[in-house]
Inverse folding.
């Protein structure tokens, strides 16, 4: 198993844990319970139902284990009915290895509103560094509706 992880690029030779491990993603909306999901690279996560026009933030928790992680970035591309609707890239920063779990919070984003924009949005996300090494990638969904 360890050999497969090294070949897949998640582990560097000589280490038993990935340098950057994304642990979870949470959708934060004021006045509502956070929707927190464990992130498993390459997997599809749950669908989150949200009201149109809602302002939200994304929280990522991660750990840096072996070496300095330089220029970490979070990227998400949102698709609606098969067409790209939005694309955002956030600079997370550079971090030294620590036992402590880190947290990154995006700026406020707003869901579209109006009858034409209701429906299922597919979001492809990835967590990568300056060297374009993708530490984690996953797909999740938002179902934009008239009500909660």
């Amino acid at each position: 198993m360890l050999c497969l992880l090294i070949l897949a690029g998640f582990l560097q030779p000589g280490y038993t844990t990935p340098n950057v491990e994304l642990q979870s993603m949470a959708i934060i909306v004021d006045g509502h319970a956070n929707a927190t999901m464990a992130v498993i690279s390459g997997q599809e996560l749950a669908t989150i139902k949200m009201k149109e026009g809602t302002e939200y933030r994304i929280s990522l928790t991660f750990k840096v284990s072996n070496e300095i992680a330089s220029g970490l970035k979070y990227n998400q591309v949102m698709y609606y009915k098969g067409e790209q609707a939005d694309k955002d890239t956030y600079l997370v920063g550079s971090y030294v290895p620590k036992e402590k779990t880190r947290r990154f919070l995006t700026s406020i984003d707003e869901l579209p509103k109006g009858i034409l924009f209701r429906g299922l949005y597919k979001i492809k996300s990835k967590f990568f560094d300056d060297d374009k090494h993708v530490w984690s990638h996953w797909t999740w969904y938002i179902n934009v509706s008239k009500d909660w």
